[in-house]
Amino acid sequence: MMIIQRVVLNSRPGKNGVPVAENFRLEQSTISDTIQDGQVCVRTLYLSVDPYMRCRMNEDTGSDYLLPWQLSEVADGGGIGVVEESKHNSFAKGDFVTSFNWPWQTMAILDGGLLQKLVPQLVDGRLSFFLGAAGITGLTALLGIKEKGHVSAGANQTMVVSGAAGACGSLAGQIGRLEGCTRVVGIAGTDEKCSILISEMGFDAAINYKKGHVAEQLRELCPGGVDVYFDNVGGDISDTVISQMNQNSHIVLCGQISQYNKDVPYPPPLPPEVEKIQKERNITRERFLVLNYMDKQEASILQLCQWIKEGKLKVRETVVEGLENIGAAFQSMMNGGNIGKQIVSVSK
Fold first, then answer.
1. Which of 72, 155, 261, 341 could lock 132 by a disulfide, CB 3.0 to 4.6 Å apart?
2. What is the rounded end-to-end Cα distance, in angstroms, of the chain?
3. pLDDT tier at 258, thresholds 50, 70, 90
4. Alpha carbons 14 and 120: distance in angstroms, whole number
């Protein structure tokens, strides 16, 4: 047997509770030192920490496509590793691979059929990008805008992005511009985040929702109203944006992070007065699930990688070193402490 380290769910925060680092526990475990046909032994390099994981901390995730994490069982999510040994035809020692269901442990034996091989050259060797801008996060931003945002070049559209400094939001604003929006405005929670959105990410303007009056600032910055709203947060901020949306406009319903610690259905219903505006103005607000568009995955990833290489898509990551710090990284992300994608580096 081989000795490994792994992180398990230590306790649940409770449906309406705020997650803390202590909800996770680092422990020593073992895996077999022999693999079966079709299996691959991998060493973990990077793990992704994402807001949707908050739902997996509950006994009932409230979603038909997410399974809850079990107490004292290893947590899992997006991960990248290197093949140490392979008995699967598609993989050889030294290959870089990824999976949506990567266990939070230093080494693992995985079914080769659940892995995808990565081409490091696509991201100039920055492998962690495959968990973010060139992975499921980038896909969510790009396909959300393409499938639900109805952005068209030359239509003089204004886009607003909430949670704009987060992993998905920071990409969505840039992609909205690349796809043809003439004005992009972000909403974030600190002056530093707002400044980075404008100076680095090419947003036209940004609103710090913790300062001043969001509705007034929005009216000032979007004088022609809002045509596309990329919604990462839900709650009061979204109600404010929706009230300033134009006739026949579109909401890309990506995430509802302000609602994740509350026991409400997904997507949460709008307050009656906001729902009335939505219906009267014929604003589309359909649930968007990127997993339903996997037929477009390959072409979309290539597009994202091309934009990254050309410098058209700027990528920000918050990288935390060490598997033992993954609980703290999760807590920090849920508290809005990061800019861009939250990654945990497990080994070099």
1. 341
2. 23
3. very low
4. 40
Instruction: Name the β-bridge partners of 158.
Output: 183
String of DSSP letters for 231-284: ESS-HHHHHHHHTTEEEEEEEEE---GGGTTS---SSPPPPHHHHHHHHHTT-E
Q: CA 271 to CA 269: how far, in whole Å?
A: 7
Nearest alpha carbon to residue 50 among 126, 108, 117, 135: 135
Structural contact between residues 40 and 112, judged by C-beta atoms closer than 8 angstroms:
yes
Other CB atoms closer than 10 Å to residue 124's CB: what's the count? 10
Q: Half-sphere exposure (CA, 13 Å, Cβ side) for 161? A: 35
pTM for the full model? 0.91
Question: What span, in angstroms and rounded, lies between the C-alpha atoms of 252 and 287?
Answer: 8
| Whole-number Å distance between alpha carbons of 60 and 69 | 10
Q: Which two tokens stand for residue 264?
A: 């409400």
Q: What average pLDDT does this structure show over 291-297?
A: 89
Query: Under a CB-based contact definition with an 8 Å cutoff, are residues 56 and 66 in contact?
Result: yes
Residue 139's closest CA among 307, 348, 316? 307
What is the Cα 91 distance to its own chain's centre?
27
State whether the Cα torsion 190-158-178-251 is positive or negative: positive
> Could you tell me what percent of the chain has a pLDDT over 70?
97
Backbone angles phi, psi at 321, to 5 degrees: -90, 135
- 146 torsion bin: left (phi>0), alpha (psi -120 to 50), beta (else): alpha
Task: Write out the two tokens for 226.
Answer: 């809002």
User: What is the rounded distance in angstroms from the CA atom of residue 287 to the CA atom of residue 148?
Assistant: 9
Strand intervals (E) in 50-192? 76-86, 96-103, 107-111, 116-117, 158-162, 183-188
Q: Phi then psi for 109, rounded to 5 degrees?
A: -110, 120
